Structure formats: C-alpha cells, structure tokens
Amino acid sequence: MNKQGFLKGSAILLFTVTFTKALGLLYRIPLTRLLGGSGMGYYSSAYCIFTPVMAVASAGIPSAMARLAAENYAFERFANLRKTKRVAAVLFTCIGLVLTCAVILLADPAAHLLTGHKNAGIVIACLAPTLLFCTVMSVWRGYFEGLHNMYPTAVSEIIETLFKLALGLGFAYFTNTRALNEFSHLGTCFGTACTSKEQAVLIALPYVAAASVFGTSLSSGIACIYIMARSKIKGDGITPRMLQKDPVTDATGETLRRLLRYSLPVSLAALITTLTGMIDMLTVNPCAEAAVSKSPQTFSHLLEGGLTAQQLPNFIYGSYEALAAAVAGLVPTLTAMLGKSALAGITESFAKGDNKAVCSRLNKMMTLCAMIAFPSGLGISLLAENILSLLFSGRNAEIAAAAPSLRILGAAVVLVSLSLPCFTILQALGKPRTVALIMILGGALKLCGNIVLIRIPRFTLTGAAISTVASELFICIATLLLTYKAANARCAAREVFVKPLYAGLMSTAAAFLAERSVSKIHILTFKPAFVTLFALGFSVIVYLFVTALLCEMPKNVLKSLFCKKNRKNT
C-alpha cells in the first residue's frame, strides 16, 4: 500500500496547497481586476452565503472517513473498511444532491434577504453544483487520507485548481466581452437598456461573477470524476487476502450511525467557523454606511475614482474580502493541511492508547505550523501595501481601502494558522463540541467588535480586521490549551513557539532592511514590484538559514521526501 508518514504526507500536502494557492492567485488577481471592488462584493457575498451550506454538506466527511478508515485499518478490519466507503458514498451523494437542489431553488430569496443584492442569486445558483461534487469527492479524499495516502487528495486538488483557472477565467472574460459587445451594438446589457458603458459594466458584474463560479463548479466535477476513476483503476491497496482475514462487517445501520456521529459535529463546528465571513457580510455594509453618512470627508480619497457614497459600503466590503481577507487566508490553508496529514496517525495512536506517539505527532504538527505561521504573518503585516500593489496593480482605490486592514490581519494569520490544525485534532480526539463552543464565543466577540468599531469613521477600514484579531486571539489560546489537554500531552514550547518566532522575527527584520535599502538607492530606480520581490526573497533566505541552524524539523522533512524508510517519518 502506498502509505506515507506524517512528515512525508505533510510535505506532499504542503506542496500541493502551495501550488494550488499560486494557481488560485493567478485566478483571483485577474478576476479582481475584472470585477473591481463592487463586482467582488457580489462574488464575496455569494460565497459567504454558500460557504455555511458547504460546511454542513461536506466539511465533516473527510475527517469522519479518515477517522473510520484509520481505525478499521489499525484493527485490520479490511472488509468493514470497504463497506464503510460504500455506505458513505451512497449517504453523502444523496445529501449533496438534496442540498444542491435546495440551494438552486432558494438562491434568489436568500441573496435578497441576506445581502440586499438580488443579482447575487445567480452567482449562488451557479455555485450550487459544487455541493454535490464536493460531498462525493470528500468521501474518497477522506478514505485515502485515513489510509495514509495523500496522493489522491493532492492530485485531485491540483486538477480542480487547474480547471478552475482555465474555466473560471475563460467564462468570466467571455461573459464580460459578450456584455460589452451587446452594449456597443444594441445599447443594452443582458436585455437591460444602458445609457453609458459604465452602466453596462455595472449591470454585467453579477453575470460575470456567476460565469466565473460556474467554471469553479465544473472544475469540482472534473476533479470528482478523476478521484473516483483513480480509485477504480489503481485501487486502495486492500488485497483479497486481506479482505478474507476479517470478513465480518458492521450492520449498515451501525455504519450510518457512526458516519453521522463523526461527521455531523465536525460539520457543525465547520459551520460555526464560517461565522467570521457571515458576520462581515452582515455587518460591514450597514456599519460602513452609517460611518460614511456620519463623516463622508473621511472617505474622500476613495470617492475620487467615480464611486458614489451609496456604492462605497459595498466597495469597502468587496475590497476587504477580495484583497485583504483573501491574502490573509492563504497561509492558514497551508497549516490546515498539516492537521489533515496528522489526523490518521494521531487517530491510530489514540485508538491504540499510545499516548507517547500522540504527544510526539502533535508537537511535530505544531512545530511545522509555527514555522509557517510566524514568518508569514509578520511579513504580511510589514509589507501589506507592497504585497497588494504587487498582486493587484492598477486597483489603487481597492488597495487604499484594503491595505490598513491587511497590516492588522497579519497577526490573525499567525493565530488562525496555529488554531486551524488543532480543530482537526480535537475532532479526531472526539471533541468536536469543544470546537463548536470555542467558535461560538469567538464569533460573539467578532460580532460585537464589528458593530462597535466599523461605525466609527476612523476605524471603518480597519474595524473588521481588529475584531478578527481579538476573536482569533481568544480562539487560538483556548484551542491550544484544550488540544494539549485532550491529548494528555505536554507542549514542547521551545521547539513549537520560541525557535519559529525568533526565526520569523529575523526574517521580518531582513525584509524591512532589504526594502528600505533598495528603496534608498538613488543611482538606480527600481520598480515597486522588484523591491517587494527582493525583500521577500531576501527574508526567505535569512529564514531558511536561521531555521537550518536552530531547528531539526526542516532536515527531517527533506529526509522524509527522499528516503523510502525513515524512522523519524512517523
């Protein structure tokens, strides 16, 4: 069987996520330039409504399947392992199909009720098929992850992202071109009479966003077909002899009960983790509207691009979500993969009562998370405006609106990157309700912060970011304490926090000095993009040098990649 240990599995998933996020930026950057802050307001609103439904539908499936697969494999119940996959495939396909139909039927009223933009309904409807594809795909991904095989998940994610890039952007640009051609020939845009090109562009925005997310839905379908076909052709490594070793299987009702018992609490916890996006969607627009009406002169620098005071709240929300929150969300997705990689090993060790192995795996996971979190969060805070200018050049108004928030969200990057993988471990240790409770309390803190801060004109552009940091600080501390308590493990604080933090501070100082030094060279004039890339590159070199001196973990990761058998790769 093609199994990987924690370090090798983590390396595979980290490479995959890094690659897919790079492709995701290639998708997101031109899409943001095409839609602008207002268009991304439709896009982000639709996703904020859709994400909780997706969490209910599929968030609990991979961890439930991985946990059951790991348990069955640990106790050599191979026939029951196969039966669990069959039952899960039927169950979650039915759930995905029902939810897909419900979302399509309720898209328009939900968009109008929750966002005030009835045109966002078409974007939600085009996203709906993703529910079916992702629920089915999650069964196979979780199954292979439970067998310590990360390749199916990795390859399917790469395929999904590649087709998302091609189809999502292709459909968006095709729809935008069609809308402008219709206006130039008929004076209408999708059947609506327009008096100017600017009006036609505004009318076309929700349709362009819908076309893009429809490409996303198709890409999920293609990835789903791939992982199912791969399973059929290559198999899962379970031989007929292994199946005969223990032919006894649980009753179908018992299998269904266990699947639901493990997946529903995780889905509930995942639903609650979407609170941040939902809270921002429901509060940023009305609170920003109150701030603009109270002190319009505070936002005069944003109105110079032709925006009206009525359009400004949606513009602020779209800029915050599409630029600041999108950049800040890149790093936590990397560390979340470490939780997925560690899940099977920790589940097996926990099932066998091997507390020493649980502690070792947990500390390894947290060390890798911290090594990613600290330099990334500190670097984002330091170079916030430079990074946004590099990625979204030409969108000066959006950058001006988002940069102050991103400087603050750098702290949230560190906190979320540390807490997300712990959620997965708490769920593996049978504590999903703990995750839900922590997120509810954190969400309440976030809601209060948004309502109070965004209404104050001087905090309108940063209020959501400040409340996010306060919320994530509470969540991170509570999650870390409860994770180590549930695992009955002792945190190796020096390896997990002190060394990565020191290396992160050194790399951030290097980025600061490099950026200032290059900017002050008067003999040569460098473009801002070059200055940013040089500062980032220099900080990475310094960080790698410092971690190579201080930490053993990077060497073990490299060994795990190139050695078939490594005692540390567990």
Rg computed from alpha carbons, rounded to a whole number of angstroms: 24 Å
Helix content: over 70%
Helix tally? 19
Encode the helix/strand succession as letters: HHHHHEEHHHHHHHHHHHHHH
Widest beta sheet: strand line-up: 1-2
* Mean pLDDT over all positions: 83
Query: What amount of the residues lies in strands?
Result: under 5%
Distance between the termini: 16 Å
Count the beta strands: 2
Q: Based on CA inertia axes, which overall geometry fits?
A: globular
Major β-sheet annotation: 2 strands, antiparallel
Helix/strand/pairing class, anyone?
Answer: mainly alpha
Low-confidence runs of at least 5 consecutive residues: 564-570
Write the layout of secondary structure elements.
Layout: H1 6-74, H2 78-115, H3 120-127, H4 129-146, H5 151-186, E1 188-189, E2 192-193, H6 197-234, H7 240-245, H8 252-273, H9 275-294, H10 312-328, H11 330-351, H12 355-382, H13 384-391, H14 396-428, H15 432-453, H16 463-486, H17 493-519, H18 528-550, H19 553-562
Antiparallel strand pairs: 1-2
Overview of this protein structure:
With 570 residues, the chain is mainly α. It has a domain at 275-490. The chain contains 19 helices and two strands. Strands 1-2 form a two-stranded antiparallel ribbon. Strand 1 (188-189) and strand 2 form a beta hairpin. Helix 1 crosses helix 5 (151-186) and helix 15 (432-453) runs antiparallel to helix 16 (463-486). The longest helix has 69 residues, at 6-74. The chain is globular, with a radius of gyration of 24 Å.
Main features:
570 residues; mainly alpha; two-stranded antiparallel sheet; 19 helices; 82% helix; 1% strand; disordered C terminus
